[in-house]
């Protein structure tokens, strides 16, 4: 694997044993073009539970469920202060509220949680369903589509832009920016994307700070954190992060699930036969989410620390990648096999602890609506002959293109 980050490979620090150094690059994982999560699982099986890599600035990697969940919950030792690899340039505004730890984090996160509670999501359901049906009916007569552009991006993005009351027509401008932010190989690419999104948002933010509405964006940019509302710069950072999350991650999960179902007609038929069985569909969604982990955030170690015989130093970075919980054979038997009868799918796709994803309820609802509306209209589909899905790995894994066809 070659480094795709700019600059040299990081030298091994004195406290890192040579025996724990591995050639791992989150942006260049062997086999990820065929199956991202299986490629990660191969890394998991072939390496120590915790190892160090010189790529992307040099960082530790935790590959097993127990350690990842412990690190996600222990913000005292594993801080969210910096969450991307390679590290952003010194002085880059932090991503609010993701690059904050409790108790500060909770004050900023509250309006996001309130706006995405189950009751609010239920009110959105008819809108989500309308968007899904319209997108499916548009492609149905053609017998084929490029699923990511024609559906996976349309469903969550239309819903999210309505939540923040931004024009649907702006999605063509915003999606490429979001793509560069979550999958940019260098800090410079991601920083430029953040600046572009901030430039797009600034006039809207100022308008809604002057005249707040009931939309999610108005609530975010006027958060009161006990000493008055957040500054304009903080408002831009907060809105930028939420927009990136809303524009990309659900589309990625829907893409992975559609690819899986196109390749696995047996699973597809199980879903088609039990589309009206709410409990079965809910459980099947959880199993497919487990198998297709997406988001990865790094942590900063806050103090010199011995953890399970490994010595960390304050300032070290570590990647406890979410998706490895789902592929861990210590907690999920035959983890690469999707089994709708699995008793309890164990995963960390939405994180754990204080930073668990506030959009998880909405994401699950959108996936359920996709399955119900798509499979009731297009129960039999496959990957278009002569094409190959384009998959991406990085801080957020995704499906960049997926050509499907049906009778």
UniProtKB/TrEMBL annotation:
Keyword match Zinc-finger: no
Keywords for the protein's UniProt record, in alphabetical order: Heme, Iron, Metal-binding, Monooxygenase, Oxidoreductase
InterPro entries: Cyt_P450, Cyt_P450_B, Cyt_P450_CS, Cyt_P450_sf
A Pfam family hit: p450
Annotated family: Belongs to the cytochrome P450 family.
Protein name: Cytochrome P450
PANTHER family listed in its UniProt record: P450, PUTATIVE (EUROFUNG)-RELATED (PTHR46696:SF6)
